[in-house]
Amino acid sequence: MGKACFRTRKWPQAIGTSFAQAPRALVLTVALSLAACHEPQTTNTVTTATTGSDTPTSQTDNAEPVAQANAPLVFLTDLSGRLENGQAVSAFMAPEFTFVYHVDNRCDGNTDGVLDALPASRVDGPFRLEVTNDGDGWACERKPVSKFEITFDLQKVLADWDRFEVYQHENDPYRESIEGRGVSDYLVVQLAGEEDELRIDRLEYRSEDPG
Prior knowledge:
Elements: E1 5-14, E2 24-33, E3 45-46, E4 59-60, H1 65-68, H2 71-84, E5 93-105, E6 109-119, E7 127-133, E8 146-152, H3 154-158, E9 165-169, E10 172-180, E11 185-192, E12 199-207
Parallel strand pairs: 5-12
Antiparallel strand pairs: 1-2, 2-9, 3-4, 5-6, 6-7, 7-8, 9-10, 10-11, 11-12
């Protein structure tokens, strides 16, 4: 597959609390495509988003703060390309990271779980976690709260996504999202580290019932 290209634009968009603190925020969206890339119009910054490298990459021709401002965006675009191609992404993770699972279902209610100190290598394969279901779906009678274990496999979950769109939140550029499978499923990543050594220390999988 070729190099992933992207376009950027800003506009006010209402978003939920899972995306940002403010009720309305400027969201920077990056529409990925497999078309040939156009040369950038500016000459002081060169930003690349490659899908074949094992590690995140970015290029700038100076060390100005403006040139470094999009480092999280380049990182996430690179990550998104690898996820779309079903490639390993452990190199993007901190040595240990926090995984958050949230599924909202109109009948079953909310199912939530958290795993702390998960080794980076585990992100590329299935792992078990305990979740709690509140049984409080709006379309069905309330059920008792229950706890059980599930197996989560990121690559299998993403296999049926029909799009991979990257969103960077202007009020917190180190908290970003990848949306896919309609409007219901998305990943939220929290980045840590310096611009040239960014890693994901928190990964959230969220599925919201669009009903």
